[in-house]
Every structure is written in C-alpha cells, then in structure tokens.
Amino acid sequence: MLNTIQPKVTLVGAGPGDPDLLTLKGAKALAEAKVVLYDALANEEILNHAPKDAIKIFVGKQIGNHAYTQDQINQLIVDNALTYGNVVRLKGGDPFVFGRGSEEIEYAESFGISTIVVPGISSVIAVPANQGISITKRGVSESFWVITGTTSDRSLSDDIALSAKSSATVVILMGMSKLSQIVDLFQKESKGETPVAIIQNGTMPNEKIRVGTIDTIEEVVAENKLSSPAIIVIGEVVKENNKLKGFYEEFLSKEIV
User: Fold this and answer.
1) Terminal-to-terminal C-alpha distance of the chain
2) pLDDT, tens digit, for every residue of 160-193?
3) Which end of the chain has fewer CB atoms surrounding its CB within 10 Å, N or C?
4) What is the pTM of this model?
5) Which residues have a Cβ under 8 Å from the Cβ of 10 and sit 6 or more positions away?
6) Among 56, 61, 137, 208, the one annotated catalytic
7) What is the three-class DSSP state of 147?
8) Is 1 one of the catalytic residues?
C-alpha cells in the first residue's frame, strides 16, 4: 500500500494571549491539524479550534522549566509531520518576533517538508494598545525599538544601551529579570524621569499594569509583585494615555513640591 501521507508544517502565531485575537487564518489552519505542538504563551483555549482527535503536545519553555530543548522541538515537528502529515506549530504572539519560528521552519524545510507561516498579532503592539498606549504618536514618538531583554546566552542585549540614547519608544520583552540593569542604562543617559509601564499577562483577564518612571519602576515592581510574563514599555507615549495622564500629573506635582 502506498504511503499517502503528505507532510506539512504550518507555523501559526497565537497572538498576545486573548484567544479572540487569533487570526481567522490561524483558526482555519488549526481546524485541519493532525498534530499541534504548542508553547507556554499560547492560550490553551485556542486548541479548541483543532479537531478533538488531533494530537496536542505541550513544548513550552518557561524560566527554569524547559519541557523540551529547541533541538528536540525541531525534531518533534519533523517526526510528527512525517508520521501524521499536517502539523501546526502554535507559538505565542508572532512566531517571527523572538519566537525562533524561522529556525523551526528552516529545519523542517531541510527535510523537504512543505511549510506555511501564518503571522500572529504581536504582543509588542497589542499589549500596550490594549491599555490605550500607542507606541508611536505624532509629535511624541516617531519610532520604536523592540528588544529582547534576555539573549540566547542569558545576557542583556547590547541594543538596550543603544535604545536608551534615542527618543524612540522602547518595548522590551523577556526583560523582567534584567530590570535593574535596564534601569541603570537609562539612568546613565539621564533618563530617570522617563515614563515606564509594565504590563503583566497582557490582554488576559488577569492582566495587570503598573506605571512609574525609570527612577521609580523597580520600587513599583516590588510593591506590586509584578513578574513574567510581562512587557516593559519605556517612553513619553506612556503618559500620553488619557487613563495614565492623571497619574503622571500627580506624580510630577509631588516632585515639584
């Protein structure tokens, strides 16, 4: 009997957390999946779009807890595609924004497996937007940096020091464990009064936002027990938000007194 299995891998961005922010194309891809390999930041409710009999494998990485190494994930993608045919690799946010999606696609293609990429709504833009923070605004910020706080060797990205010299909005992912180093770099550029927002579990029911300045944000984090997963937004656009403007006006008036 001829083997009729046609291996295919579809890389799907799950969006920032809220399951309603999955794209229609992502939902359609999941509906045809034989196997779904999903990450820690992909909302499990999204798995309901896949057939009930689809194999669902958690391959998420969290600080200090890696279910699989990246090499093992790459191999799981290929093995399942060759065995079952249609594999959906579900990744939080957009798979090409610090998601190692390109590495997984390249590995699958090296075995001659057909691949498709379905972009996702990136948390970089969606999480601040959900709190009314526009990461660019005419007359306030003409551009933005998107930086990983923790590189593959667990060190702080050199780009953060460069971003601290600019007037752009700076959005840092995976940076909570490096917050004190980030603060130091901005303080060296005399940016102590620059507004900062930290948004934990963005777009989810348990979302939590706290704001401050470069000089105060570590104290704010400690007082409110903020932790990962969270996004750090640094720049004047933070206080342009109508909901947050009052906080900063009150804060600045206390500074003057």
Assistant:
1) 84
2) 999 999 999 999 999 999 999 999 999 999 999 9
3) N
4) 0.89
5) 29, 33, 86, 87, 88, 89, 115, 116, 117, 118
6) 61
7) strand
8) no
Mean pLDDT of 63-89: 90
Helices (H) and strands (E) in the chain, counts: 9, 12
Q: Six-digit token pair at 50?
A: 């896949």
Q: Which of 8, 18, 34, 174 is catalytic?
A: 174
Locus of tokens 């798979």: 95
3-state secondary structure (DSSP) of residue 211: strand
- Catalytic residue check, 243: no
Spatial distance between the Cα atoms of 92 and 95, rounded to a whole number of angstroms: 7
Q: What is the pLDDT of residues 117-174, one digit of tens each?
A: 999 999 999 999 999 999 999 999 999 999 998 887 888 899 999 999 999 999 999 9
CA distance 42 to 162: 31
